[in-house]
Request: fold
Amino acid sequence: MRKDNVVKINNPETFIDDPLTGILRQGARSLLTQALEMEIETVLNQYKDLKDQRGYQRVVRNGYMPERQIQTGIGPVAVEAPRLRDRSPQLSERITFSSAILPPYLRKTRSMEQLIPWLYLKGVSTGDFSEALVAIVGKDAPGLSAPTGQSSQGGLAAGVSAMAKTQS
Reply:
């Protein structure tokens, strides 16, 4: 009989098996898609009178960028950003489109970019996890009271110290 010491570590996404979170992600994806479609339609309408040498519309839709994951407060949300093409033969005259809603290299929402370093600095370095929890779930979240924060802080602090012991 073979003994295997390898422990399977689940992907964090599999930990969140919550139907409500799934619905929220689908809704966020749908709203983001609608906003991006409205944004590109606005740009296309702005340049609809421009014609190329053959009389066709010069600025047209050109499919979508490859799908990418945007890390949000409710988990990753997959998006495909629409793109357009300008058929102008002169490169200097070409119109480019860069979404104001979804910049080209965005991978995390601004709230996540600010939250992660703050959680590290505030939670791990000082051991004060109650403020970190407030940042994640909000100050008026039900079930987040002083006793809850203290019990969470105790459990998280124990977990951090246990990890530190195993790594040293």
